[in-house]
Amino acid sequence: MREMARTFERQVVGSTLLPLEVRGLGYRAGDKRLIDGLELRLSNRGITVVMGHNGAGKSLLLRLLHGLLSPSEGKILWGGTPVSEATTMRQSMVFQSPVLLRRSVAANVDFVLRNRGITVSRRTELLKKVGLADRQHQPARALSGGEAQRLALARALATGPEVLLLDEPTASLDPASVEAIEEIVRDAARAGTCVIFVTHDIAQARRLADEVVLMSAGRVAETGPTEEFFRSPRTDAARAFLAHRFSLVTDDPQGETK
């Protein structure tokens, strides 16, 4: 997979988006506080997995980090700089259900490349590396769920982002699609991209994460290296979360994948 890593390689020298510092972050929807005094610091590249129960604020956090929503209070600093068009241009985000243009697979990638002033000659190589070169002239919206997500990743990585934000990109996909997407994500991380990956799947977190962030009730409950987090969680919230997720897997090994 060294070739794929070279395809997604970006220039990391002089990068200033890290560390990510989140200070006293709050977000309200009406009278409901969904993010509540959240504190977080990420300084290392690699893959950070964000976990937590439904409603913990995981997806909302990603949207705030990417500037899609504005916080009600607090600060988000990328390399000491507040969220702005300049910081978001150096990031890409992939959602659980990607929105594809009503064009061919190739045209979806070309649109991103042309928008950033990058030659479209990269397109074929990108599509080859995500396993879609033979589908490039077909309508993007005719792709399967796993193929559509691989196309979304190709578009996201086409510009060589410093940060890649992924919101449950493998939810409801078949095992083969999950494996293919995880390998693309690993190679992006090897090439120097900082990946922040939201998932419910404990097994996936163990496979991918260098660091785990556990969210609970709109706050960060615990962070730490992956092995340490799963071996000896420090907080009651982390112990309860892991006990609950493991019990779900034990009770329904085929159905608990989110």
Task: Characterise the protein shown here.
The chain is of the alpha/beta class and 258 residues long. It has a single domain, classed as Rossmann fold (3-Layer(aba) Sandwich). Helix content is 37%, strand content 24%. The chain has ten helices and ten strands. The strands form two sheets. Strands 6-7-8-3-9-10 form a six-stranded mixed beta sheet, with helices on both faces. Helix 4 runs parallel beside helix 6 (145-157) and helix 6 packs parallel to helix 7. Mean pLDDT is 91; it is low at 1-5 and 253-258.
CATH topology: Rossmann fold
- Fraction of helical residues: 25-40%
- What is the global morphology? globular
Question: Structural class of the helices, strands and pairings?
Answer: alpha/beta
Identify the CATH architecture: 3-Layer(aba) Sandwich
* End-to-end C-alpha gap: 27 Å
Order of helices and strands: HEEEHEEHEHHHEHEHEEHH
In DSSP terms (H or I, runs of 4 or more residues), the helix count works out at 10
Would you summarize the structure shown here?
This protein is an alpha/beta fold. The chain has one domain (2-8, 15-251): P-loop containing nucleotide triphosphate hydrolases (Rossmann fold, 3-Layer(aba) Sandwich), CATH 3.40.50. It is 37% helix and 24% strand.
Give the SSE map.
Blueprint lengths: L1 H6 L12 E10 L2 E11 L3 E6 L6 H8 L7 E6 L2 E2 L2 H4 L2 E4 L10 H11 L6 H8 L15 H13 L5 E5 L7 H16 L3 E5 L3 H7 L2 E6 L2 E7 H6 L4 H16 L7
Parallel strand pairs: 3-8, 3-9, 6-7, 7-8
Antiparallel strand pairs: 1-2, 1-4, 4-5, 9-10
